[in-house]
Design brief:
heterodimer, A: mainly alpha, MetI-like fold, two-stranded antiparallel sheet, B: mainly alpha, 15 helices, 74% helix
């Protein structure tokens, strides 16, 4: 009798522990994904009647210039954001010493990641300001004309990415600092005996041991790049003339701004963004599944 | 240790390193230092074009009191706390339970449920935006702290579950088996055996979630409007629009918005980094 009760308890207990968390996750994450997919098949202003239009929103996307601009910018973000990884490694190597006060230096280098992207965006808009921004003050000092980074279609996306790289590099740095801490000193010594130095040591002995850190750095950097919304909203609101939009921002604009409340069209853009992300989700989960199996 | 410890290098290199370190730091934090300096400048400096020179006077108290007097920044900060603190408590509480369930029990769908929580982390916010906003409006929690808290708790549960589950999995399983032999009920095992051992994980998650939620801008703009419920990130954005070129005030506001997570980071540094670098070491 007693044994049977315990058996049941072990069967029911996990579901009781899971229930509240799963319920919340279901309501706010899982179901909305499918609702968005559904909404993307409708023409809807968010208030009135929904009109079913099938794939029309997606068809419209194919001819939408702004969609391609956003998609192109998303790719630029993805590629250039990866610079945060070598940059973070570089700073981590620079700081991986035991001189006096190094711990404080490490924390201060990490600083940009702790502050809000809103603040980072404001700081950099100001840094780029064409009339008095620090960047142009320095350029002028070297006899170069001022560049209005955020008002120039050619530079604007790169300018915002540079701002984003600042905190992202700090994040990668902290990942590598932790990784370097765990590098096996015996292997380093063995490498030294084999006369490995500098780059060769880094490439053949250290980097392979930093693989877990690199993996996490890639994962968080990809997510960071595809989530790029805050900086664009703060620094340019997608401008000039929509040239700095990315999918995340364009979607928001279509659904919730003065450009109209096109929920269905916005949802369609979000679905495309979701599908891109799905590639990475699959990549991450496969890796995790392999690790779990051992 | 790699690179070679600097103590083993010649004196000249050691000296160079010690000089390079502060210079690199100043360059790295230059944009931030500029903001800090501007936040104590008098308005007259900005009008006369003295943006980067030495301030003619240090008006720290004036500038900072001015933003508190003339703008709802105090309310924004309060709203941020009203969103952030409950989110931290509930997200950590819920995920300690889900993590426990997924780490301790063997049952069908264990792996599936775990992977769904993990995958949820990567979902772009935009695909949730329209339905979540709709849901909040229908429930009457649009433009309230509660609305933001509920969403954040739900979404953060994904990341927190991953964290908690891996942490509990690394605890010695014999502890649980021993308790079961003693006839301890399952919920008591959770409460009296596992939870006390999870203190480092709870602390790490608490600081991380605090920072993430405090710094959230997207959901603050989607789920709130106006000073009644807007957190500081959204508030700062709208203030920036009003202040136009009053950069000394924008700077002071930015510094204030950044302070709580920065303080949190310095107070709980060890936990913060332990949380962020989860999985970075095998």
């Amino acid at each position: 009798m007693n044994a049977r009760r315990k058996f049941d308890q072990k069967k029911i207990a996990p579901w009781l522990f899971l229930a509240p968390g799963m319920l919340m996750f279901l309501i706010y994450v899982i179901i909305p994904v499918f609702q968005s997919m559904n909404i993307s098949l409708y023409d809807w202003d968010g208030l009135g009647e929904k009109t079913f239009i099938g794939m029309d929103n997606y068809v419209e996307l194919f001819d939408d210039e702004a969609f391609y601009t956003s998609l192109k910018n998303n790719i630029i973000w993805l590629v250039l954001y990866m610079l945060a990884i070598p940059a973070g490694l570089f700073i981590a190597l620079f700081l991986n010493q035991t001189v006096f006060g190094i711990r404080l230096y490490k924390s201060l280098f990490f600083f940009p990641f702790v502050i809000s992207q809103v603040v980072v965006g404001l700081v950099f808009s100001w840094f780029y300001d064409p009339s008095f921004g620090l960047m142009n003050v320095m350029l002028n000092f070297f006899g170069i004309d001022s560049i209005a980074v955020l008002a120039d279609e050619r530079y604007v996306t790169y300018g915002i990415i540079a701002a984003g790289l600042w905190p992202q590099t700090a994040y990668c740095m902290i990942l590598y600092l932790t990784g370097l801490n765990a590098v096996d000193p015996e292997q380093i010594e063995a490498g030294r005996l084999d006369n490995a130095k500098g780059w060769r040591m880094l490439w053949y002995v250290v980097l392979p041991q930093l693989k877990p850190a690199t993996f996490i750095a890639i994962v968080v950097t990809v997510i960071g790049a595809l989530r790029s919304f805050d900086l664009i909203a703060i620094m340019t609101a997608g401008g000039p003339w929509g040239s700095s939009r990315v999918l995340a921002f364009y979607m928001y604009e279509q659904a919730f701004s003065e450009y109209g409340f096109r929920m269905g069209y916005g949802a369609a853009i979000a679905v495309v963004l979701f599908l891109i992300m799905l590639v990475y989700i699959a990549f991450f989960l496969t890796k995790m599944y392999r690790d779990e199996r051992g | 240790m790699f690179p070679t410890p600097i103590e083993k290098s010649p004196r000249s290199i050691r000296l160079m390193y010690n000089v390079a370190l502060p210079i690199a730091l100043i360059v790295w934090l230059l944009p931030l230092l500029a903001v800090a300096l501007t936040s104590v400048r008098p308005a007259a400096d900005l009008n006369s074009g003295n943006y980067w020179g030495w301030p003619t006077s240090f008006d720290m108290i004036e500038n900072y009191t001015q933003i508190f007097k003339n703008t709802p920044i105090g309310q924004y900060i309060l709203n941020s706390f009203r969103v952030t603190i409950p989110t931290v408590i509930f997200a950590v509480a819920l995920s300690s339970m889900t993590g426990f369930a997924l780490a301790i029990y063997k049952f069908r769908f264990n792996m599936t449920i775990f992977f769904i929580f993990v995958a949820g982390n990567f979902i772009p916010f935009q695909i949730l935006m329209v339905p979540v906003r709709d849901f909040s409006v229908n429930m009457g929690i649009y433009n309230t702290a509660t609305g933001l808290v509920l969403f954040h708790v739900a979404f953060q549960t994904g990341f927190c579950t991953l964290f908690m589950r891996n942490f509990i999995k690394a605890l010695p399983y014999e502890l649980i088996e021993a308790s079961r032999v003693e006839g301890v009920a399952e919920w008591r095992i959770y409460w009296f055996v596992v939870l006390p051992l999870m203190k480092p994980a709870l602390a790490a998650l608490a600081v991380l979630i605090f920072t993430f939620i405090w710094n959230d801008f997207f959901w603050a703009t989607v789920l709130t409007q106006g000073a009644d419920a807007q957190p500081i990130t959204a508030g700062l954005h709208s203030l920036n629009g009003q202040w136009a070129s009053a950069w000394h005030l924008v700077s002071a506001g930015s510094i204030i918005a950044a302070l709580p997570p920065v303080a949190m980071f310095f107070l709980m540094q060890k936990h913060f980094i332990a949380g962020l670098t989860l999985g970075a070491v095998k």
